[in-house]
Specification:
Strand content: 5-15%
Number of helices: 8
Radius of gyration: 18 Å
CATH architecture: 3-Layer(aba) Sandwich
Order of helices and strands: EHEHEHEHEHEHHHE
Structural class: alpha/beta
Oligomer: single chain
Number of domains: 1
Strand order of the largest sheet: 3-2-1-4-5-6-7
Amino acid sequence: MGRLDGRVALVTGGGRGIGRAIALEMAREGATIAVASRTEAQLESVVAKVRELGSDGLALPADAMLQEEAQGAVHSTLEAFGQLDILVNNVGGGVTRSGPADHDPFTGDEEVFVDNITLNLVTHYWATRAALPSMREREFGRIISIGSGYAKRSGGGLAYTAAKHGLIGFTRSLAGYVAPYGITVNCLCPGWTNTDLIDIEAMAERMGTDVEGAKANLANDNLLDRILEPEELGPMAALLAAPESAGITGQVISVDGGYKV
């Protein structure tokens, strides 16, 4: 018996990295899992593992930057399983056309700024908006958005940092709106995590060092002096999704090794 038995979870950006790790941890806890991202092969790999763990799974190829597809993943989950109890808004990352110069506030690409806000904030709203009516009807819901170490401080690209800060406001405001319906809303913030989103070679070049030197520099940003693994975020996400966490809402919770404390 798992603490998520009978629950259905949708994880966006669920084909790899943190999204994959959260999806698999929730499957271990008994949840039925739907995963959405652009890469079908990655999704099918996650679903195969979900089924090995004894849960049902559904791969939903979708481009989160398109509202119809972002919300379509929610609708497809509801059509397949008749309910959606847990929404993990994990989709995010960086959008660029020509590199770091795109993010310069004086000369940067304005479309890139808007695209980054869309990817890291607006997509979370789109999926949440589609999921809320069913959650309200069932009087149960868990919405978990994946933030960043930059959600609470500066240091990242302008649009990325602004969007991740926006997720905190989104979390706290939405939590108030939906609390009467048994729905909780929280933001889970990783720090440096061993995923494909870290372009360690490019970072090493910018730092003027090699890959191992860049990894050491990143590790020095947190108290544990290491880069965390995606699987380390899974247990906290599962806890926030569990029925016994009904009293946790509107919170920003870090699993980051003590990033820049």
